[in-house]
């Protein structure tokens, strides 16, 4: 299997694992998700690079994916979690996007060294 497919499957696995573990263990700590944002940034950058063959476009697309995810988290809070009085913190959103960006740089660095 090629690198694009592996990185895409890795992204799906990260989403599933993070949701299951946070649901089963009732984890609402923002620091728990930092690893998942970093790994998702790495995998997304690798995935987008294999599709575009352009480092800058890959980083931009990874950042757009991170923004899209943060919008999803906000809507999830607005429509589902609001009843539990769990409101997302703006600094969490900023930190998540920074960690996504750092992950994309690591992913692009991996591609640059490896290929």
Question: What descriptors fit this protein?
Answer:
115 residues, elongated, mainly alpha, 80% helix
In short:
Helices cover 80% and strands 0% of the residues.
What does this structure look like?
- The chain is mostly helical and 115 residues long.
- The protein has one domain (3-114).
- The protein is built from 4 helices and no strands.
- The protein has helices at 3-25, 34-52, 55-79, 90-114.
- α1 (3-25) packs antiparallel against α2, α2 (34-52) crosses α3 (55-79) and α2 (34-52) crosses α4.
- The longest helix has 25 residues, at 55-79.
- 21% of the residues are buried.
Spell the H/E element sequence: HHHH
Q: How many domain units? A: 1
How far apart the termini lie comes to: 16 Å
Please tell me what the overall shape is.
elongated
Helical fraction: over 70%
How much is the average pLDDT?
Answer: 89
Write the layout of secondary structure elements.
Elements: H1 3-25, H2 34-52, H3 55-79, H4 90-114
